[in-house]
Amino acid sequence: MKKLIGAIAMILLAACTDVQEATAKPLASSQEGTVVRDISIHSNILGRDMLYSVYLPAGYSSEKQYPVLYLLHGSGGNQNEWWVYDDLADDADAMIVSGEIPEMIIVTPDGNTWMYIDNCYGNGLYYERYFFEELLSEVESHYSIRRERGTRAVGGFSMGGYGALRYGVMHHDMFCYVYAMSSVIGGYGATDMGDIITGYSSSELPGITLECGDRDYFTYDNREFSKQLTQLGISHEHIERSGGHDWTFWSACTPKILRKVGGLFRDSSTGIASVRPSGRQSKDIYSLDGRRRESLKRGINIVDGLKVVFGKK
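The structure corresponding to this sequence follows.
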């Protein structure tokens, strides 16, 4: 009897081991995408060389055309944050191989500390112009990228969340979805999104997700902006969950971003009508809550946990 029990135990142990090995089996090298880092582009608008990095799915071929996701980093970061601190490439590989999302290209540009806007704090650097007039055309002509609204999305965290919201709203004819994590909503030299969003209708805007931790610097701002969107009748998703302003929180968002935009990319004709550019111009104002107002009095701002001195890059 003991021998029988022992034999059964060995069989069960072997079966469990087989399951664990199957679960942990890594992707074959032929199934792994490529991250090309630090690609240089000369900007005539900014008067300097700029960098960006790009993820190309396994088997990338110029014979195909791919949808594209632009991801914007926070203040003090750079074009490689997503590849150093996050499992973005691994997530994309696994989800493409499983068929959960279609093949896509992911572009991560360097935004310095300039809020992804023109003339931040009067620095004379027109980043938004650079992004739309130089970077997009360079990337989308160099790589085999589809250029329809339904095959282009934008996301970001903190400062990059603000950039994603701003670009998705003000250039709504170009993006099918915006995913903003732990997003700055206004201040720091940039027009408040609460002012920008006024006058837009839900029908002309891309899909929007706001995701923020309950211990974040910008929890309150995201709650208030979500309330404003609801009051304006603008459809959106607001996720608030446990977490702070860090990569532990943002990394948990990455698969959600890929699923969200992947679903739209898979069928770019669903719910994505052709929309004309709005022609609206942002107002040269920004709203301040109490915390930002006190920060301005001291001559500094705290963005992503870093001290940013006015007038300094």
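The CA atoms of residues 75 and 113 lie 5 Å apart.
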